[in-house]
Amino acid sequence: MLRDKNLIPLSHQHQHALALCVRIERASPIAGADVAAWQAEIAQLFQGEIQVHFAAEEQVLFPAARGFAELIPLVEELLSDHEWLRGQFARATTETMTAAEVRVLAERLSAHIRKEERQLFQRLQEQMNVEEMASTGRKLDEALKDSQQTCVLPTQATRLKSAR
I need a surface site. Which of 80, 108, 110, 151 has the fewest CB within 10 A? Predict the structure, then answer.
């Protein structure tokens, strides 16, 4: 099923985060000397986009999803993911992660995003009528207005090396 236009702004932000996750996976194992650079990039994405993204989901999307009894357990699981991820983003901001922890963050963030896209978004599109989806979309647009829609450019340390 195609993504409803009202959820596309969240999906675009998911793509930005997934791109970082893929780069971390491909760069692993991360050299100790590069861990700080990866943490800086993670912190930049969190502060510029993910922080506002989480708030929009928690203030708009999750309450809408709770209107459907079968989605309540999924929403609770996603909220738990947000709590764990926020803790890891805070650690990246203070540069207290190890290379292995950077990799685990990327794996968990990727799994979380896929759960939202494949389960929550899909089921909301099946359950909500056109008016409910449009109302949710307007509220999401308002909630996301302060996010930075910028592309984080890799540094020398976080740029993927070509395999020769």
Answer: 151
What single-letter DSSP state applies at residue 148? -
Q: Is 127 exposed, middle or buried (0-12, 13-18, 19+ CB in 10 A)?
A: middle
Phi and psi dihedrals of 160, rounded to 5? -70, 135
Residue with the two structure tokens 């791109």:
19
Q: Give the per-residue pLDDT at 148.
A: 75
Q: What is the pLDDT of residue 160?
A: 67
The secondary structure element, H or E, covering residue 41 is: helix 35-45
pTM given for the model: 0.90
Residue 155, φ and ψ in degrees, nearest 5: -90, 180
